[in-house]
Amino acid sequence: MPKESQSIPDELTALIHRAADMVCRSQRLVVFTGAGVSTESGIPDFRGPGGIWSRYDPDEFTYQKFVSSSANRKKHWVISRNMFMKEYEPNPAHLAIAELDRLGRLDCIVTQNVDNLHQKSGVSQEKIYELHGNTRWVKCLSCGRRYPAAEIVQRLDNGEEDPPCLSCKGILKPDGVFFGEALPQHILQEAIFHSQHCDLFMVIGSTLVVYPAAYLPIYAVDAGASLIIVNMTDTPMDSNAQLVLRGKAGEILPAIVDSLKTRLRSRNDE
Questions:
Q1: What is the pLDDT of residues 153-165, one digit of tens each?
Q2: In the β-sheet with 146-148, what is the strand arrangement from edge to edge?
Q3: DSSP string covering 90-140, please?
Q4: So which residues are the catalytic ones?
Q5: What's the pTM?
Q6: For the chain, which end, N or C, has fewer CB atoms within 10 Å of the first or last residue's CB respectively?
Q7: d(Cα 35, Cα 52) in Å, to the nearest integer?
């Protein structure tokens, strides 16, 4: 884990140490991650400057349009193949969150991201609640068979433009939540439960403008949890947070973990 960068301003360093104190005292930490974590691995975001929706009309990528015609599916597979089904690697923010888990500080991760990078960083699937699905998998809408995304990428590379299910010839769809498609209710309910029963809720890399995911920090605060926000820009929950740290998740999270380790060592030496 890299040490705190000398480029981190003193005022941010002070907030990092305060965040480490809060994590050290916490018994039930929920980490909530958004696109600002994934972008540091090279994954394009949706709403930021130069994001996907600045290049494509989101109305063209609804669930209804995907299932309505092969032409729409072919268009979507091109974008999925080139943007979301590539191989990406965890960045320092993912690795720092995984380190929180290894240190015994993590209750669970609730994520808006669909890239599987929390799993790839070493956190077990049982501790990860993916509100918007996982595009490392593809599912058949008819029989429910699931395929590793790499298998479908190979079929696309071999010339299939709208690959059907090999079992039933049904429609295959990336296992992420599209516009017009309901969130997986059992995942959402588990995320709500953990949010309402945590003592510290940490938002990392989310603008908190996409609902119902953005309700989760509200549930946590209403239930008495403390709130930390790590994000590059303002969020609607900033005024409710005990700490707001502006900057890159991949710089701030490793620094928090390093500061936490110092506190844990001091506690063990007492």
A1: 999 999 999 999 9
A2: 146-148, 133-140, 172-176
A3: --HHHHHHHHHHHTT-EEEEEES--S-HHHHTT--GGGEEETTEEEEEEEE
A4: 132
A5: 0.90
A6: C
A7: 12
Cβ proximity of 33 and 113 under 8 Å? yes
Q: Would you give the distance in Å from CA 262 to the centre of its chain?
A: 27
The pLDDT confidence band at residue 250, using thresholds 50, 70 and 90, is very high
Q: How far is CA 118 from CA 9, 12, 43, 99, 138, in A?
A: 28, 25, 14, 11, 18
Q: Residue 90 has which token pair? A: 């965890």
Residue 184, φ and ψ in degrees, nearest 5:
-65, 115
DSSP state, residue 179: B
Cα–chain center distance at 204:
9
Token readout for 194 is 């953990």
Report the run of H or E that residue 175 belongs to, with start and end: strand 172-176
